Amino acid sequence: QGQEKLSCNPKKENGTRVVLCELGNPMKAGARITVDLQLSVSGLEDMGEAITFHLQLRSKNSPSPSNASVTVTVPVEAEAEMELRGTSLPATTVLPTSWHWVEGSQRLEDHGIKVEHVYELHNKGPGTVSGVTLSLAVPHLLGDHVLLYLLELGTEGGMNCSHHPALNPDQV
Question: What is the mean pLDDT of the chain?
Answer without folding.
Answer: 80
